[in-house]
Design a protein that fits this description.
With 194 residues, the protein is mainly α. The chain has two domains: 53 residues, Arc Repressor Mutant, subunit A (Orthogonal Bundle); 134 residues, Tetracycline Repressor, domain 2. 75% of the residues lie in helices and 0% in strands. The chain starts with a helix and ends with a helix.
Length: 194
């Protein structure tokens, strides 16, 4: 059951995020200050930082929580599902976890067009990859004590490259292309399946 406090918190978070995205679009990410976002959203800077730890979190969201959701989704796929398909299911879940497709498009454009955000995005994605390698190793049947399995690392890196390429193309084309179809095309190209 959602409490009044939960609904109030969700409304505040949405108002802050809407304000931030509007300001970033109008004047650029680097030129927009936290003080300005807080003032226009009608909250104190302290409140803003309670909801969002950093300015980057306004765009990138809670990447640690999303990384955990991705890992958990991949782990929960049936054993009969390939590593490739388990990772695809994970990314489909993460993509729709926090935002509408329209908001994901706005945020993706900001990330891909702002060097500091893109660098942070890449850093977080590398952390996600490191967390997923043991999960994929287990799915491939590699026992924990057997040492590194290059297949797991290669599969994870390939999937991330395909997700990032598809996402960037999707953002460049204003969301008019189907994101999962773009991902599938990228994966087919690198796997030589088509």
């Amino acid at each position: 059951m959602t409490t009044l406090w939960d609904r109030s918190r969700q409304a505040a978070v949405q108002e802050i995020l809407d304000t931030a995205v509007r300001l970033f679009a109008e004047q650029g990410y680097e030129q927009t200050t936290i003080a300005q976002i807080a003032r226009e959203a009608g909250v104190s800077q302290r409140s803003l930082f309670r909801y969002f730890g950093t300015k980057e979190d306004l765009v990138c969201g809670d990447q640690d929580a999303l990384g955990e959701l991705l890992k958990r989704t991949v782990e929960q796929q049936p054993a009969t599902v390939s590593a490739w398909d388990a990772l695809r299911a994970g990314f489909e879940t993460v993509l729709t976890a926090n935002h509408t497709p329209e908001r994901v498009l706005e945020l993706s454009r900001l990330i891909f067009n702002t060097p500091s955000l893109r660098a942070r995005y890449i850093e977080k994605r590398l952390n996600w990859q490191a967390q997923l390698v043991p999960v994929v190793q287990a799915r491939l049947g590699t026992a924990p004590g057997q040492g590194p399995d290059p297949r797991a690392k290669a599969i994870v890196a390939t999937v991330f490259a395909c997700v990032d390429t598809a996402s960037e193309l999707w953002a460049e084309h204003e969301g008019r292309l189907d994101l999962t179809d773009l991902y599938d095309q990228c994966l087919t190209a690198v796997r030589g399946d088509g």
